[in-house]
Write a structure and sequence with these properties.
Layout: H1 3-32, E1 41-44, E2 47-50, H2 51-81, H3 87-111, H4 117-142
Antiparallel strand pairs: 1-2
Length: 143
């Protein structure tokens, strides 16, 4: 197994951990939503939202992200094990790069540049690394 395939597998295993964390976060957020006062309001980017509605949005986003990352990591591990099957993962990694960039732009626009900007940058770097590594694995498969 080449070093690119090993590195891709390691990154995908980190994505599995991220997926589990997203699923737990989403589930806890949705489960705890009922404990919030319906009249509480939170302001994000100058827009007032009901706190319960905001909790629903974050809970659903966490679960959807977790499912995507599980599928993404599974496709990456599958492609690392069998280089001929890397195609779908390469397409998904391009989508992950786009989502990471859009997420960073929205996060900075709504919250401003802060300490969590590092998380956005790490997300972009991991997604780009997956895209590049998938390309190298694809080249290996074509030899």
């Amino acid at each position: 197994m080449s070093k690119e395939r090993k590195l891709l597998k390691i990154i995908c295993l980190l994505y599995v951990l991220d997926a589990i964390a997203c699923l737990i976060f989403g589930g806890i957020t949705l489960a705890g939503m009922g404990l919030l006062d319906a009249s509480d309001v939170v302001t994000v980017g100058g827009i007032d939202f009901g706190l319960q509605a905001w909790a629903v949005i974050f809970g659903i986003w966490g679960i959807v992200s977790g499912v995507f990352y599980l599928i993404f990591a599974g496709a990456g591990i599958r492609g690392a094990n069998t280089p001929r099957k890397i195609g779908p993962f390469r397409a998904m990694s391009l989508i992950a790069v786009i989502f990471a960039v859009v997420g960073m732009l929205l996060g900075v626009a709504l919250d401003g540049a802060g300490a969590d900007t590092v998380l956005y940058v790490v997300s972009i770097v991991f997604a780009i690394a997956c895209f590049v590594l998938a390309g190298k694995v694809k080249e290996q498969a074509e030899r």
